[in-house]
UniProtKB/TrEMBL annotation:
Coiled coil: none annotated. Pfam families: Rhodanese. InterPro entries: Rhodanese-like_dom, Rhodanese-like_dom_sf. Residues 133-225 form the Rhodanese domain. This is Rhodanese domain protein.
Length: 228
């Protein structure tokens, strides 16, 4: 969870909010409107301070203590209560031989990703991905080759997350592109999206399929082999 205080340098409430977050042991950063006027346009708000969590405005002006307590609850590191990582883990559900429709899922790898990857980027589901397939609209597989197990969603184009900015001209700017990776535990597509946004790519031309290969396979949907 990424917490930010957006405020003017002269805002009298900013130091108070900083102290409250420190007392609650919540990590945060301070962003000044004076140095980042684009924030006013991004959030369409001129109030100070703003409490922003994962790029969403959670409080306008000083938040109440109930909001601070809620953030403390949400800030719990889920990795602390997850099953420990296996030595030989696999990112993609494995089909069980001779058992159609049955797959083996490894739940121990990766880190849980937020449902919304960035402000202005819509999270989509399998029906939207299937629509893009039928209409031959862009679907981007943001995984590095050593993490894809040589399979992908049919109709997708592989542009690894660490190459997406330098290969930005390969992305169809006329239609929104769906980005995916190995699923809710995988940060590759969310990283690709954030890198594109930093490079100035419009958020309304990006769609995030958080379910990725994990949800696609566990729902019994077909995949295609990748030529290597």
């Amino acid at each position: 969870m990424e917490i930010s205080i957006a405020a003017t340098k002269t805002c009298p409430h900013r130091p108070i909010l900083e102290n409250e977050l420190k007392h609650a042991r919540l990590p945060f950063k301070v962003i000044y409107f004076d140095e980042h006027p684009e924030l006013l346009e991004k959030y369409q708000l001129k109030h100070s301070p703003l409490l922003i969590v994962d790029e969403q405005v959670e409080s306008i002006g000083m938040p109440g203590m109930e909001k601070i307590e809620e953030l403390k609850t949400r800030n719990v590191d889920l990795s602390q209560i997850r099953i420990p990582k296996r030595d030989n883990n696999h990112m993609i559900p494995n089909r069980v031989k001779a058992e159609p429709g049955l797959v083996e899922v490894d739940t121990t790898w990766g880190s849980i990703q937020p449902m919304q990857v960035a402000h202005g980027v819509l999270t989509v589901e399998e029906l939207k991905v299937h629509y893009h397939q039928k209409m031959n609209l862009p679907i981007i597989d943001a995984r590095k080759p050593d993490t894809n197990d040589a399979i992908s969603i049919a109709g997708s184009k592989n542009i690894p997350f660490d190459e997406v900015v330098k290969r930005i001209d390969e992305i169809d700017k006329n239609h929104p592109s769906i980005f995916f990776c190995n699923g809710p535990q995988c940060p590759q597509s969310s990283t690709a999206i954030k890198n594109l946004l930093k490079a100035g790519y419009p958020a309304d031309k990006i769609l995030y399929y958080r379910g990725g290969m994990h949800d696609w396979i566990t729902l019994g949907l077909p995949v295609e082999e990748i030529s290597v």
